[in-house]
Amino acid sequence: MTASAPALLDVRNLSVAVDTDEGVASILDGVNFQLAPGSIHGVVGESGCGKSTLIKAILGLLPARSRATEGSVALNGKPLFGLEQASTAHSVRGRQIGFIPQDPFLALNPVFRVGDQLLEAMWWHGAGSDDTNREKPRAQRRRAYSERIVELLRAVQLPDPELALARYPHQFSGGQRQRLLIAAALACAPQVVLADEPTTALDVTTQLQILKLLRQLTRERGVSMMFVTHDFGVVAQLCDTVTVMYAGQTVETGPVATVMEQPSHPYTRMLLACHPERSVELKGIPGAVPSPLRPPAGCRFNPRCPEVIPDCESGRPKLLPASAGRHVACFRCHAEAVP
Questions:
Q1: How far apart are CA 189 and CA 238, in angstroms?
Q2: Closest-CA residue to 75 (of 129, 10, 6)
Q3: How many other β-carbons are positioned within 10 Å of the β-carbon of residue 3?
Q4: What residues does each domain of the chain span?
Q5: Rounded to an integer, what is the distance from CA 266 to the centroid of its chain?
Q6: Rounded CA separation 208/66 (Å)
Q7: pLDDT at position 241, please?
Q8: Which residues, 6 or more positions from 240, have their beta carbon under 8 angstroms from its beta carbon?
Q9: CATH dotted code for 97-189
């Protein structure tokens, strides 16, 4: 993202804590990223790094006993915190920000027809800022929305879209259900779509089809997307920019090609080395993501990092500019950058 392209979605120093019986868990700790208009931004990291919590925080859907303790989230320059207010939530969720959940087998209600579920989302949220149907009689409005749903199902390449409305979720395959969820996310013509690992439950062939479909739809409809995943291969195929998260913190962010070809942070390099297409001999990362209840002092990656220096164990590194549009949070990288 350049200085001439202001962020559509701007996350600044976002921290989220959860009150538990064992103490306060720091799930997100100073997360930063910006989503440019018309782009796809990947968020990648191991399980337990806080990626799904980041989506819930943006949507204002943090579970009970969770709270944002610091930072801000803005859409088009307008802060999104305060989504607990019903009027604000109604104007943002669905209409301005769409959501594609992770599991296509659990996201749809099995006892209602697909058409009724998609129609309900459009009925409550409208069909987007250009919707002209809200003042029409109920029957006419329902007919207009049904026609839009069929158009969306055709756009996501679902077979027999007219017949699909009368079917139940169990009558669709996993890939077809994911297409239904993509259609639901686009139903109200949002500016931004948040995708929470939407291809994890799919086989590799179907996954590739869905990724191609998402890129095509975002380009055709001018939608920006934040795509959460644990797979750098998916990031390489789909995303323009990427944020690497570890233990609730941003460790590196920048253009995908630069981060993947010249990774700076040790965690980014080790994560890339775990990918089958980038490593002759597969190597895991020793250890595990630390508990958010008891994170290590200093850099949270220091217990697993092979390049630790004394500063790593005493202070938290800042996310500072590096080469080629990247920002990196690493004491060793900062020291090597100093002439």
A1: 21
A2: 10
A3: 5
A4: 97-189, 251-337
A5: 23
A6: 35
A7: 95
A8: 36, 39, 40, 41, 255, 256
A9: 3.40.50.300
